[in-house]
Structure formats: structure tokens, C-alpha cells
Amino acid sequence: MKKLLISNVLAFSLLAFSNQGMSQNFKCGSSEAQEALFQKHPELRQQQAQFDAYVQQYVAEHYGETNRNSIVIPIVFHVIHDYGVENISDAQIIDQVNILNEDYNLLNADTNLVIPEMKPFIANVGITFKLAQIDPNGNCTNGIDRIASPLTYLGNDEAKLNPWDRRKYLNVWTVKKMSDDVAGYAYKPSGVSGLGFPVDGIIILQDYIGSVGTGSPGKSRALTHEIGHWMNLSHTWGDNNQPGGACGDDGIQDTPITKGWTTCPLPQNSAVCTPGIKENYQNYMDYSYCSFMYTEGQKQAMLAAMNSDVSFRNNLWTLENLTATGVLNPTPCAPKADFYATSKYICSGTLVNFKDNSSNGEVTSWNWSFPGATPSSSTVKNPNVTYPDPGVYPVTLTATNAQGSNTITYNNYIIVSPNWSDYTANYVESFEDALQTEKWINNNPGNNSRKWQRVSNSAYSGSSSMMLSGFNQAQGDVDELISPSYDLRYMSNINLTFKYIGATMATNITEMRDSLTIYASTDCGRNWGTPRLTIKRANLAKAGQTNAFYVPAATDNWSTASVALNPSTYGVANVRFRFRHAAGLFTNNFYMDDINITGVLSTDELGNPETQISISPNPFQNESNITLTLSKAEKVSINIHDLTGRKVADVFNGVQNDNTSSYKIEKSNLSSGVYMVKIVVGDHQIIRKVLVD
């Protein structure tokens, strides 16, 4: 017996230590979210007090009763993702639903670890959660709604996309990141009564879902905790987020007064607030996360919420609603086709891997269409194809199972760049030439009105600039502007500079969340590497605060940003830049102009002393000849560029044998001025100036 007792104490201590390690970063944001809502709508605080009084009366009248009704709650998971690990699997979500049903029906085996003093109070809440089988439009669903959006990196009420009718469903949103470093939060019923319906539900980090996939056993009770808030429970120490502080109470008679725990103490060390009374640190509403139980009082408090019409909690489990949401008779669904590519921006000749991301029903066959690619079609789940020629291409997928099929096409999805550059540095982009600006790529992941666009009503120089329409847009929205490609070979002291100006609607610096991050790629945008520069907050909103639609005046003080580029990395033939803007809480419009790529050009006499070149006459009035002598056959390209770096004429592109050849430049294609002749022979390049009279 003594050995058994020691063994049990050791096992309990190891379990406590293990759970402590897994939960040390857990932080629930419900108290702060609810208080912020009260600050905006003070009338809700009185409603909460009235609802709490109703709950206390209900608990007093029903304490100790078994659940007289079978409560089934239809639940939907909205997976907000960017095609990364946050796009959690169906299996991970199903595992989480199973854990909820164990916890709320006293089927979790770890109740045997509850300390003896609290075992008499363990409750079978008697609530079952089932994934919805019919969506709000009457369509077949598996209860998992996948939404691609950059708001997965934001994780607040703005990220609660596509909420389903809360009268019929419990909404759960999973995201990659949460605001304020919390793991999740939920509002109490009276806190979202009336107009609060779009945000009613739980939002939570994807790795706090389930015990498989990106989840883990130590985090898998977080949703159990947040649903407790959704059914009006407080933290065991009260309505705040300061566990371990002052002793407090949650208003439930059978949960002892506690300071709250962030670790699992030894039982004998848990009687802190009331001498001789061990605290219920193993409660799902504590932070210890050796969480195994709800009490009878908490059960009745949750049943009080579920029997109330406040925020329509009592409608969720009616027979009519269970029939309308399909949970009583689940049936398989046809799939919803979706996919993504491992790279959307590539050089010609590059292999691209496509991933099936279809949902709603298990796919049994795939039919892909890849215009411009080799092969041009496929029937495998995750095909690999190659795009040999530059261009912009659509991709189509039809996903099928026994219940039906679904087709999706993403137009302008794959952008294939040539292996040669659009421009040669030194280069100036002033956005004055609309045709030249078309070479810039506007990536708008949110597919909304906030996007980069050329405007002609404001500029640092000239009349045009590039504007990001950020006025009254959602926090966390991301937009990218991707440059043409530049040949930076034979350059030293390479610098990217640009002018910018922006405004904010925020009234203080803590509310300014806007950021601009600049990246560079040497492989046509397939990989972007680490950020080259990030500008944030007030440094980005140089024009200050305004609630009006911001347009810079001619006298505005534009700022200059500069990025130094290492020639050993970026001194290559095909460099692109990405300007990635993330919207803050109170964003406004942002402008960029005069993007310059400068450096010192070094000469390379084509890598072979026997190679000779001459341009004559120079200057010229009507025509001139480029004479090139090679000692062996080489691939040759000769192009004419203006002083901004823009290519204005193609002279020759092909193979020259081991001879002397002449190539003509005609003035008919050029206006008077200075031009740069770029001659590339094999892997070597030389730049020569010519003057056209």
C-alpha cells in the first residue's frame, strides 16, 4: 500500500509537471475582449448583471438535478488559413469534437486524477456537440468551412469571417495568430445580445485544436474552456485575466475561492485562499491545464444559459434546429474543389507542385487543367508540372466523389517570368508611363477593394504615383506590389530607394499597426528570403492622423527609404522586389513614388580577350553599327535601354558563330538623347553608351 501510494504521488507529480510545460503559454483573452465590448457599449454591462442574477437563481433551483433534456449543439469550424499549417485537417477537428464530447459528458478517463476533495462535485454536463451537416443555405456540409484569408495572421473579431446564423450554430474560428498573444476568447451570451451576433462564438489558435496534427493533448482542453465562457462561465478566480493574484470568486457555490493557477500544485499546497480548503485547480476554467472537470454548480450555470433566449442559446438544441442543421441524420457531401501551388511566381522552365485542398467531402478523383504547362492535364491528387514559356496562366481543378463533383478555376494564377530581365539598372520608376506600370504585379489576397493602383492625382515628382487604397479597410488585410525584374550583374554599391507618404486614422501611436515590408527575390519570386526592410507605425504614417480620405498635397513631406543590397547575393540577372503592406486597426491611404535602383556599373569585356566590340558612328544621326567579333559560337543578345533602364529596342537575340558580325541601330526607333546598349555574350555582359543626335 505504501509503495502504491508513493507511485501514485509520483505519477501525479509527473503529470502536473508535464501539463505545466504544455500550458505555460496559455492565455485566454475572453475577459479583455468582454471588457472592451463593455467600453464600447456600456448598456451591455447592466444586461450582464441581470443575466448573472438569472443564472444564480437557476443554479439555486436546479442544483443536483440531472439534465432533464438532451442538449445537442450543432457546431461549425471556420478554418481561416493561408494554405499553411494553420489549414488544419478534418481529422484534427473531428478529434477536437470528440474531446469536447468526452469533457461535457464525463467520459474523459482522467477524472480519476481529480483530488478526493473535489470528486463529489464532478458533473456530467450532458451536452453533446455535433458537426453541422446542412449549412445556412441548405447545402450539404461536413461542418468545416475553409476560408483562405490573410486575416488568419490577425486573430480578432475582424477575422471572424462568414459567421453562420448563431440561432442555429455554434461558430468556432481557427487562425494562425491571435491579437495580444492570447490563445483564444469567447463572449458571454449577454455580452453579444442584440447586434453582437457577427462575433458570437469562439476564435482560437489552430494548434489549440485537438490532440493530433498541429494540436497536442496539453492544449486540447482550451476549446472546452472557451465554450465554458460562451455558456456564461467565468474563470474560477473571477472575471479577469490575472491568475495567481488576489483571491477571487466566480459566483459558483461549489468552486472554492481561489487565486487561480498557472501550474499544477501538489494537492497539499493548494489550500491558499481559505486555510484547510483545497482549491479546484483541476477545473476546466482554471489555467493550470491539468484540467479534468466541471462542478455541479458550473453545470447548472451552463444549463441556465442554454435554457435562456439570450443570444438564442435555447434555440440551438430544439428538434426543429437539429433537423434544419442535419445533425440528426448526417449524410456524405460532394466535395468543394480548392487547391494551391507551392509557388505562384516562377521563372520559365521551373517545376511547380500543386496541392489539392478540396474540402466538405472526401475526394475520390481529380481532373486538373494546366494551360501552358507540361503536362497540360493530370488526374493525380498532387501533380507536378512545368511552364516552359513566360506568361500568366489559369489553373482548373474538378474534384469528384460518389455524391457529385465541383470545379474551381483560378485565373491569372501562375505568373511565369522570362529568364532575362525586364530592365537594367540603373533604373528609375516614376509611374508616369501607364504602359510601363503594367509590368508591376498587384497581389490582392483578400480579393477586395483595397489594392495597389496607379493614380494621377498625387505624386512626389510628376503627376502619378502608386497608391494603396487603405481608407476604412479591415485590420490585418495584406496587399503586395511586385516589381518587374532587373539585371543587377556587374553592379556594386547597389541600392533600392523609394519615396513614400501615408496617413492614419489612429489617434495615438499604440493604435497604429500598419507596416510595409520589402523583400527581394533572385528566382522570379519563387522565394523571397528574409525581409530587407520593415517600416512600421508612425514611421509609415508620416502625414499623421486624418479621418478624411487621404490624398497628399504637393507640399507634403514625403520620406525616403533606402535598402542596401549585397552584390554577392543580388548581383544577378533577374531580381524582383516585393512591397508587402499590412493594414492596421485605423488605416488610411498610402503612396509610393520614384522607386530607384542604383549602383556602380563595372565593365566586363565579355570574358574573353579575343572578343571585340565597336559601335560606329557614335554619336549618330540616322544609323549606327555594332560590330562584334567572337572566337567561338555564343548566345548573344543586344538591347537598347533608355536612362531609366526601360528597354526601348531589341537589336538581336540569337546565336552568333565564331566570326565578325554587324548589327544595325536605326534612329527611326529612337528619339534624340543618350541610350545604353546592353550586350550579353554567354554569361558575360557589357554596357556601352550611345548618343543619338
Q: Could you characterize what this model shows?
A:
With 693 residues, the protein is of the alpha+beta class. The chain has four domains: 28-208 and 216-233 and 294-324, Collagenase (Catalytic Domain); 343-417, Immunoglobulin-like; 429-601, Jelly Rolls (Sandwich), CATH 2.60.120; 612-692, Immunoglobulin-like (Sandwich), CATH 2.60.40.3080. It has ten helices and 34 strands. The strands form eight sheets. Strands 1, 2, 3, 4, 5 and 6 form a six-stranded mixed beta sheet that branches. Strands 16, 18, 19, 22, 25 and 27 form a six-stranded antiparallel beta sheet that branches. Strands 8-14-13-10-11 form a five-stranded mixed beta sheet, with no helix packed on it. Strand 33 and strand 34 form a beta hairpin. The longest helix has 22 residues, at 2-23. The radius of gyration is 32 Å and the shape is elongated. The model is unreliable at 1-24 (pLDDT under 50).
Which superfamily, in CATH terms, is the homologous superfamily of the largest domain?
Collagenase (Catalytic Domain)
In DSSP terms, counting alpha (H) and pi (I) runs of 4 or more, how many helices? 10
Examine the coordinates and then state which fold CATH places here, giving the name of the CATH topology of the largest domain. Collagenase (Catalytic Domain)
* Protein structure class: alpha+beta
What is the level-2 CATH architecture name of the largest domain? 3-Layer(aba) Sandwich
Q: Mean pLDDT score, rounded?
A: 90
Instruction: Pick out the low-confidence regions.
Output: 1-24
The coarse overall form would be elongated
Helical amount among residues, as a percent range? Answer: 10-25%
Query: Major β-sheet, in short?
Result: 6 strands, mixed
Total strand segments: 34
Beta-strand fraction estimate = 25-35%
